[in-house]
Structures are given as structure tokens and as C-alpha cells.
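Reopening this ticket.

The earlier resolution said the output was attached, but the attachment link was broken on my side. Pasting everything inline this time so it's all in one place.
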Amino acid sequence: IRGEGYPLGQAWGLMRDFSNGGNGYINTQEELEWAKDTYDIGTPRLGDFKYVDVNKDGVIDAKDEVPMGYGSIPRISYGLAFTVNWKGLDLSVLFQGIAKASRAYAGMGVYETGKDGFFTGYHRNAWTKERYENGEKITYPALTATSSVSQRTNDFFIMDRSFLRLKNLELGYTLPANLLKSIGISNVRVYIGGQNLFTWDNLRFNTFDPEMDNGVSYPILKMINLGANITF
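Inline output:
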């Protein structure tokens, strides 16, 4: 959906209903009967998301989708780099990140139905009747082997993809020149470095990188390297 006044890549979706102290899910048979009479987006089940009838026309459909978050294009891109040298030691660091960016996540790496089935940490606390009745932590709607109304674009799967990443780090040491003269070497520097070592983000899961477009993209790798520079 593109509209005047909204950024490119603006996500639109359904809002979960937390009114009356609810948890955003269809928890009871009474709520389920209401959803069956109201949902025009598929057949609801216990444990599916309970949505808000935004336009109050008595039907949950695409007309109830509203803009959420920011666009997929970051409003802020930033970085921080510095180098320190002290008595033969040198340290260089590069941080990079983005802010004010959102994305609607779906498919492989997000839904439990992706490809031949995808089940990971945040699916472990999916809605079940027993978990709800026991007041246990619930982090995902009721699992399914097919698609469900919970997989409609909504404010659960539209996430803040802002992140800060330690992109590069290198620590080196240059040996004193007077120790090298006797062996005919003018300079030796040894170092250890890494790329993509740490990432801080706001995603609900750790199976997706905030820089990736989808769950089957080639992952951004964490790398560590050792080396030496020798000058004769």
C-alpha cells in the first residue's frame, strides 16, 4: 500500500486486541464464536490473534489494516569508527547501525510452516489451552501445519529492525624494533580481528538478521582472523 504522507515501504497490518486486559489472543470459546462471526480473513481457532475492528463495521478484513512503524528504508543510518595507538598496541573499531526502520517479516525463519516446517526458540512458548489456563508465558500464537489468520500481516510480525553492529574490530601489536635487528627484520606486527562480532537489535527472534530481506538469504557471517605483517 502506498499513500501520500507515508514513507516508501510503509507496512500496513491488523492490530492485536489487548482491550479488557486481554493478551492479544483468542483465549475462550466465547471469543472464538465472536471471531467466527467477525473474521472475513479466514477461519480463526483458539490461540489465534484477536484483532481490532478498527473501522467498527462489525467485520475484520483488509479495511482494518493501519500503518505501523516506519518504512523499510531507514530514516537514520550511522556509524562510529576510532583507532587507538599506545606503546606498540593498536586498536581499531567500527560500529554501524540504522534506526527508525520497520519491516513486515514472514515466511521461512518466521512462521512455523516455512518450507518443510520451521520451529525455533520463540515457537516453544506458543499458545496452548494449558499454558493459557496456567498463566504461563506465551510468545507466539497456536501452532499450525498450514496457514492461519495469525499469519496475516499484523503488529506482531511488523517489527522494529533497528540495530547496532560491531562491524569490525582489530587489535594489533608491533614488536619493538631493537628486538628485530639481530634477525634482519625491520618490522613485525601481529594482530587478531573480527567482523560482525556482536549485534544488538529489537527483533523478537534470533533466527533472522536485521539486515537480511528474508529467512533464506545467505547469512551475514561472523568471522575471526589472525595474522602478521612482516617487513624485511
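Reporter confirms the inline version is readable. The longest strand covers residues 187-201. The helical segments are 29-38, 129-133.
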